[in-house]
Structure formats: C-alpha cells, structure tokens
C-alpha cells in the first residue's frame, strides 16, 4: 500500500519531511542553534494556534531555559531520591539507571512544561452537559497536539528532543517553584538541546494493519 501522488503545494512535502525526520534524542547538550527569542516564538505560536474543542483553549505552557530548565530535573532527582529513601525504588536501580537518565535530561538546554487547565472547562461542561465527560479528554488531545508541534518545530531548527512524563512526582514542587496556578495540571515535559548522539533506529508496524481507505 502506498501512494506516489504529488502535492499541489510544495510546502506540504516540506511539512511531511519534517514530520518524518522527528525522532527521540536522549543524548543532548546544553547548547542552542537558534536564539532564545526564536525558541519562545515557536512555543508561543503553538499555544496560540493549535486547535481545541469548542475553542476552549485549555493548554498552558511554560518554557524553561538554561538554569531554570535545570531546576526541573533537580526536582525530579530529589523526588526519586525520596522514593529510594522510602524503600519504594531500589537504590541500585536509581544510581545505575534512573539518576543517569535524569542527569542526561538536566544536561540539555531547555524544557517545555505542558499543562491542562481543567478548571477552565467548567462553563462549557455546564452549557453542554451531555458532553461533559468528553471535555477533559478533548483538552488532553489539544495539549498533545501542542506537544507534537513544538517538538517538530524545535527539531526543524536543529534541536534534538524527547518527551517525558514525571507527573505526579514533580507536580507540587514545580507549581511552587514557578508560582503557577493550582488549576494547571502538568501533563508532559519536552526536553530539548543540541543533539550529542544519534537517535535509535525506528521500526514501523505494517501500514496495511493500521490504515484503510474507502471510496477511492
């Protein structure tokens, strides 16, 4: 299965080349190929223009660079060390696997924190009560689109990145450290920096088992 059709707009081909080239990079350096202002524009434009259900605009995003970025992973290291002390995580696993991984994230240039403000959905849930249980998942879907767009755009500009999920271990301390509203619920952390190693090979399940077309 496949198609050799050409697109009308050359920009479409460029878009999909960027999509195909996006990978997960774990080896990152604390350097940037572009200005901090350019990074901020990528994140800000994503916040503004990614769609959301009923235009609820529930995503909240925090961009952390350099020393501020390092604080996130200090928080994560301290949280995991607390689990070791409490006997919930084996010390050997923490020292040999978890801590080196967290230090690798810390060595990067920045982290984008993605939140969802579920409290802001109260009016729309009341107005459309029949769909009330759907709005939280819709908000997560919108947030995921923001994560993906920022990831692709950062890699297009020369960064490597990886997406992490350390909630709820880090949530309280992150909210406190940057004085964020309590209604912002952390969903993911996108770590980015200059690639220091190649990504792992990527395999694909057969497209025939994942895609169907009718009416062609």
Q: Your description of this structure?
A:
- Its main location: cytoplasm.
- One of its GO terms (biological process) is cellular response to oxidative stress.
- Keywords: Cytoplasm, Nucleus, Oxidoreductase.
- It contains 7 helices and 5 strands.
- With about 220 residues, the chain is an alpha+beta fold.
- It has a single domain (about 25-195), classed as NADH Oxidase (3-Layer(aba) Sandwich), CATH 3.40.109.
- About 25% of the residues are buried.
**Run of helices and strands:** HEHEHHEHHEHE
Helix content: 40-55%
Please indicate the percent range of residues in DSSP E strands (runs of 2 or more): 15-25%
Quaternary organisation of the protein chains: single chain
Radius of gyration: 20 Å
CATH superfamily: NADH Oxidase
Counting helices, strands and paired strands, the structural category is alpha+beta
Shape descriptor:
globular
Number of domains: 1
Keywords: Cytoplasm, Nucleus, Oxidoreductase
GO molecular function: oxidoreductase activity
Domain Nitroreductase: 19-193
Family: Belongs to the nitroreductase family.
